[in-house]
């Protein structure tokens, strides 16, 4: 009986397994400016909001999938600097 179990275990370990990832959710960010019309809300909760979200820049890095600029981006300009640098931001 033990040999049978060992044979089955060896057969399972030697069997090639392939796993295919399934896409559970796919959102297109090809046009960030149009996202509000599709139900997305862009909210900047910084104490002094600066720039909003913008279209991705493939010169910085390309999108994971789709068009090379198909992602929403934000950077250090999303928050304006405080007027007095000595004051806590």
Q: Radius of gyration, rounded?
A: 25 Å
Number of helices: 1
Uncertain residue segments: none
Oligomer: single chain
How are the strands ordered across the major sheet? Answer: 1-2
The SSE order reads HEE
The CA-CA distance between the termini, in Å, is 71 Å
Mean pLDDT: 78
Beta-sheet strand percentage?
Answer: under 5%
Residues in helices, as a percent range: 10-25%
Number of strands: 2
Report the biggest beta sheet as strand number plus sense, adding barrel if it closes.
2 strands, antiparallel
- Quickly give the structural class: little secondary structure
Shape: elongated
Can you characterise this structure?
This protein is mostly loops and 89 residues long. The protein has a domain at 28-82. Helices cover 15% and strands 4% of the residues. The chain has one helix at 2-14, and strands spanning 54-55, 72-73. The longest helix has 13 residues, at 2-14. It is elongated and about 75 Å long. The model has no long low-confidence stretch (mean pLDDT 78).
Q: Brief description of this entry?
A:
With 89 residues, the protein is low in regular secondary structure. It has 1 helix and 2 strands.
Please specify the SSE layout and strand pairing.
Layout: H1 2-14, E1 54-55, E2 72-73
Antiparallel strand pairs: 1-2
Question: What are the key terms here?
Answer:
1 helix, 89 residues, 2 strands, single chain, two-stranded antiparallel sheet, little secondary structure
